[in-house]
Target: (S)-3-amino-2-methylpropionate transaminase
Amino acid sequence: MTALSPVLKQATPITVEYGEGCYLHATDGRRYLDFTAGIGVTSTGHCHPRVVEAARAQIGSLIHGQYTTVLHRPMLALVERLGTVLPEGLESVFLANSGSEAVEAALRLARQATGRPNVVVFHGGFHGRTVAAATMTTSGTRFSAGFSPLMSGVHVAPFPTAYRYGWSEEQATDFALRELDYVLTTLTAPAETAAFIVEPVLGEGGYIPGNTRFFQGLRERADRHGILLVLDEIQTGFGRTGKFFGHQHFGVRPDIITIAKGLASGFPLSGIAAPRELMARAWPGSQGGTYGGNAVACAAALATIDVIESEGLVGNAAERGRQLLAGVRARANKAIGDVRGLGLMVGAEFTTPTGEPDTETAAAAQRLAVDKGLLLLTCGAHMNVVRMIPPLIVTAEQIDEALAIWSAVLDEL
Ligand SMILES: Cc1ncc(COP(=O)(O)O)c(C=O)c1O
Model:
């Protein structure tokens, strides 16, 4: 009998019958409040009626219009529509399927456009599981161990992870920028450095927001040295942080952004956006793929953007995010060393009384929450951060429902 790979572990024991809004309904009849949103994907909720309708309508007319063979309407319409939400100046779009693919497309473009071999990534970043993306991932060795040799040309500089260092945000930022200069002096010369690749908020790495001075520092160094600034908005994009893109909190201009997850409400669709003149420097033949820009996924993405705008989901993410962060902070007991987040990305970091990462208690909290009907995930290098990523349609009452369960979990730990 065939079975799923035993390595593909699930964070919950649930088999889903169907999803509706912020809830997943299991085959055993139980209903769960889903604060995982498919790892930040189903931002419009499960099976939003307008997304379902758009996908259904598209399936009846064209499913796969292979985009290096033909063009099709949903893709052209989506590219045009993206122009209304993308940061100014990023008017050229390449579409793919997964986040990892988008990150690799950004890497290829940066290397080809600059003619430089190296990139700098930031410690704790997660950029995906394909070999190049895994090489650039430093949020845990589990993502890159055992299949070396990895890709060459990747150097790592610190991210301002203030809590881990036991410093203020200011001190951590000074350190991160100083070390970045040191990396550019000792490991990869600016003239050999194609790009800085960085998340606005470390996602898999522990839900750690960057800050304005850090990103301004990256921009300033990128400009000074002709290095491209690639912002990985795969988890932080499409309203998740309470602004349309996460970097907009920090007033920084990206040269390339990567998008996926919240873009298409669960259909596999990703992409990169860059200025036309920069995108044109990608080498002929270096962008393509069998499934990229799938017609049904593009139709779903168009409906997703409509829903985000017409239902005011970016504003809702900001407001409900404040409610969630305040609620988790107010309930933090001594098992929790830090609570942080931006918009609807909220993390509670479990630490032992001596300040060490407490993986076991975080895992126990996540399991207990699931038992009580609230789906959560863990993240961070030590998997000791419980993260909450509800759909952007979440209501004040649903946040209260989640907080009540979270209180019960903390009482029972
Ligand atoms: C910031 C970021 N980049 C890249 C990826 C990789 O995306 P995918 O799993 O679709 O390849 C993820 C996925 O979690 C992510 O959060």
Residues 39, 98-100, 103, 126-128, 199, 203-204, 232, 234-235, 260 surround pyridoxal-5'-phosphate (CB under 6 Å). The two ends are 39 Å apart (CA to CA). The first helix runs from residue 37 to 40.
